[in-house]
Amino acid sequence: MAIINHRLTAEQYEQNFSDIHPPFETHNAALVDANRCLFCYDAPCTKSCPTSINIPKFIKQITTDNIKGSAHTIFSSNIFGGGCSKVCPVEKLCEGACVYNLMEEEAIPIAKLQRYSTEKAIAQKWKLFERKPSIGKKVAIVGAGPAGLSCAHVLSREGIDVTVYEKESKGGGLMTYGIAAYKVTPQFCEEEVNYITSLGGIDIKYNQALGEQVTLDELRQNYDAVYLGFGVGLARQLEIPGENMEGVVDALQFIYNIRSKQYKEIPVGDKVAVIGLGMTAIDAATQAKRLGAKEVTIVYRRTEAEKPCTDVELDIAKLDGCNLLWLASPKEVIGKEGKVSQLVCSVMSLGEPDASGRRSPIDTGNTLTLEVDMVIKAAGQIPFEQLVTTHQINNNKGRVTIDSNCATNMEGVFAGGDCVNGGKEVVDAVQAGKDGAAAILEYLATNNTN
C-alpha cells in the first residue's frame, strides 16, 4: 500500500471529474420540463428556497423564451443562482417541496432549469442590473465567499462603494475551494465571481487575511461599516492517538488541493478511510475514489437513519464504489515507520437521542481494525475562535454573535453566514449576505456618517 499521485491517465481524470449533472443540451429539452410546471399559487418550492427565488416565474419566463428575464428573476433573489443550481441540496429544498412529489411523479428539475438560464447569463455576460450612482459611502467586507459577495452586490447596486478583503488568491469561498470538482469547476466559480463584480463598485483585495494583512480596527477607521463573512474552515480534530501520523489528512485540505491543483498532482492511498458522513465527507470519499484509490471506506458512528448527508449524496458515494462502515468510531491510528497502516475503531450502539434529535452513539467496548494507508478526517468544521476573540467580537464558542439586525457588539460591524451559524448551505450564506446588506443600508441611512 502507498500514497501516490498520478494513478490514472489524463482521460480517466477528465472522465471521473466531468459534470455529474449535465445541463440541458437544447432549448427544446429545457422547454419540455419547463412546460410541466404547474405554476403553483403560493408555490411551496419558492417557500422552501432560503433566498425566496420566484421559481414559477422564472420557469414561466423560460417557456416564453424570455431567458434574460428568467435569469434576472433568479439573480434578483440569489446572485449566486448559477453556482447554487449546481451545488444546492435541492432534494430537501425546492425540488423536495414540488407538488409532483405528492402525486408520486418526478419533481420539476428546478435546479437544472435554473442552471439553464443562469449559465447563459454568465457565459454571455448579460448586464441585468444597473448600479446607482455612488453616494460616497464605503463598506468593507471580510470574505469573498457567497455571504460576502451577496452582501457586496446588494450594497453596490444601491451606490455603496465596497471593498472586499479575501485571504485566498481567488474569490468564491467554499464554492471555489470546498466543493467536489465534479459538481462545479473552479473555472465556473471564477466566471461567476467575475460576473458578480462586473456590476462595478466592488473591489476585491486578494491575499488579505483578517488579523494578518488587515485588522478590524483599521477597517472600522477607514470605512462607514464592516461586514464579516469569513465563514468557518478549521477542521475538527479526532483527538485520538496517531492522529498526526503521516497519511492522516484533513478533508478540507484534501478538497482544497484538488480544487487548486491538477488532479494528477494529488496523492491518494490504495486503501482510504474517511471519518464522517456529512457533505464534506462524501466529497472527500468520492473524489479519493475518482483519483484512483482502490478501496474507500466511510466510517460513521451512527446508522444510516441518522446520517447528516442526503440520500442523493450517499447514492453518489455508493455508485462510486465507496464502502460504508456503520456504528464505528475511530479510536486509534496505528502506523509503521511513522506512516499509517491501520485504523482501530470502537464498535458503537445507539442510545437515547441527543440535542440534535439523533440517537447518541455509545461505545460497546469492542473494536475492529481496518487496514488502511490513508485516513481523511471529515468530522466537521469549527469556527475561527481565536480570530474573533482576538478582535474582541462577542461569540459563542467561536461563532460570531449578532442581533436581529445582523449587528455584532461592535458599532458599525455586521456579520453573517457560516461564521455566525457554524456552517450551512451556500444558499443560506447568500441570504445572510442579503440580510446583512439590508441592515447596513438601514444603519448608514440612520447614522448618515460622513
Automatic annotation (TrEMBL):
It comes from Russula earlei. This is FAD-dependent pyridine nucleotide-disulfide oxidoreductase. The lineage of its organism: Eukaryota, Fungi, Dikarya, Basidiomycota, Agaricomycotina.
